[in-house]
Amino acid sequence: MFENKRGSLRSGITNFSICCLASLIYCLGVNFFILPGGLYSGGFTGISQLLSLLAVGTPLEPYNIKGALYFLLNIPIVILGWRVLGRKPMLKAGFTIILESTLMSFLPIPKEPIISDALTNTIIGGFFEGIGSGLLYIGFGSGGGTDIIGIVMSQKFRSLSVGKVSLAVNIVVYSVCAIVFNPEVAVYSIIAAFCCSLIIDKIHLQNRAVTVNIFTNHEREIGDWIRDNIDRSATVFTGTGIYSGAERKLLISVMSEYEYHRLKHALPDLDSSAFANIYPSVGVLGDFEKRLS
Q1: How far is CA 219 from the centre of its chain?
Q2: Looking at the DSSP assignment, which residues form a beta bridge with residue 248?
Q3: Do 36 and 112 meet the contact criterion of CB atoms below 8 Å apart?
Q4: 139 and 12 in contact (C-beta within 8 Å)?
Q5: What is the pLDDT of residues 39-57, one digit of tens each?
Q6: With CB atoms counted within 10 Å of each terminal CB, which end of the chain scores lower, N or C?
Q7: Whether the Cβ atoms of residue 231 and residue 262 lie closer than 8 Å to each other
Q8: What is the pLDDT of residues 238-247, one digit of tens each?
Q9: At 28, phi and psi to the nearest 5?
Q10: Number of DSSP helices (H) and strands (E) in the chain, helices first
Q11: The domain 207-280 is classified under which CATH number: 3.90.700.10, 3.90.1150.180, 3.30.70.3340, 3.30.70.120?
Q12: Around 72, how many Cα atoms within 13 Å sit in the side-chain half-sphere?
């Protein structure tokens, strides 16, 4: 029992540290590359940038209010998530939102882009945002905004996902950029968003589903581990080996790639002679829980 508590404590500290680092990297990308380059981020960060334009010509104009706007926009979203998703994930999201709002407000914003070439500046800014967002998911955190809306909507409507909701919000943000500014600003902002998404997809293993086929004679032990440790189910079939003629069990389970990596490390202890075949799932229909982390 005490070992489990110590393990949970270490895991919590590790995830907390990852979330702090992730928030710092993301905000460095925004303040050091996106903003000096006159670009706009996607999601609620981009909406905060657009709303900050309303301060032009007012006493608030000299101040960086984007972080404060980002925080205010997320308040109703966190309340919604608290009611639908529960207290624990929203406490994590609330911490990240406060941290990122603070970093956006107080990290310096260079008057001129650090890198003079516009395209290079755009790509690096997108990479920083993607690394920060991807690490945040690895640390089981959430930046709020479209993440929370996407999870809530995907639970209500199976045809929706976090990615689709994020895409819809970004279409609005970049359409406004193209109308208010010029198409060039929108195009470079879209390039940054594409680079961000590319990095997130590489890092965020929780976002990719895989099908795991395990040939074993210890199907009960493996099945129990899958149920108890990653909260997934599995189906067992009986088969016969062509060469040996021996009966073996085939256990099939669908899980995220992150969950599979946890299973991969545990499998040798569960059955050292097990044979596993893993392949990506193009799509999953039916009762499969989508998880942000």
Answers
A1: 32
A2: 239
A3: yes
A4: no
A5: 999 889 999 999 998 888 8
A6: N
A7: no
A8: 988 888 888 8
A9: -65, -40
A10: 10, 4
A11: 3.30.70.120
A12: 10
